Amino acid sequence: MTLEFFIPLTITKELSLNQIYAGVHWNKRKDQKDAICLLTKNALGGKTVKFDAPVCIEMSFCSRLDVSNHAYLFKMIEDTLRGLKIIKDDTDKYVKKVIMSKQNEFKGVVVKVSEAG
């Protein structure tokens, strides 16, 4: 089983992992998390897919950031998947692999969740 969805988002340096290192206030991080959670829910469009088996999560980003600087954004989306119970948990028992890459076809994030095999 595979779930693929698209999150429309202009990715700026505000969502970069480097901003966390720079000491962004926890309140701003919470606001960012809440905004990404809402965007993710909207992008899912009411899909109620649930993975009981371990998964691989792939995310492709359209931005000027280095690939690894998307880790903060990846984590917020992954946490939303957990919160919506699409994945059972985000521990290594249930998430066996994560893949981050860049793309230019869609302005935002392409998310693909599939059973680890």
Key features of this structure:
alpha+beta
Describe this structure in words.
With 117 residues, the chain is of the alpha+beta class. The protein has one domain (2-115): 60s Ribosomal Protein L30, Chain: A (2-Layer Sandwich). The chain contains three helices and four strands. It has a four-stranded mixed sheet. Helix 3 links the parallel strand 2 (55-61) and strand 3 (95-102). Helix 2 packs across helix 3 (71-83). The longest helix has 19 residues, at 26-44.
Briefly note the CATH topology name: 60s Ribosomal Protein L30, Chain: A
Intertermini distance: 11 Å
Mean pLDDT: 94
Number of domains: 1
Q: Percent range for helical residues?
A: 25-40%
User: How many β-strand stretches?
Assistant: 4
Total count of helical runs of at least 4 residues: 3
Walk across the major sheet and give the strand order: 1-4-2-3
Q: What coarse outline follows from CA principal-axis ratios?
A: globular
CATH architecture: 2-Layer Sandwich
CATH class: Alpha Beta
Outline the low-pLDDT stretches. Answer: none
Summarize the main sheet. 4 strands, mixed
SSE ordering: EHHEHEE
Radius of gyration: 14 Å
Beta-strand percentage range: 25-35%
Q: Briefly note the structural class of the backbone.
A: alpha+beta
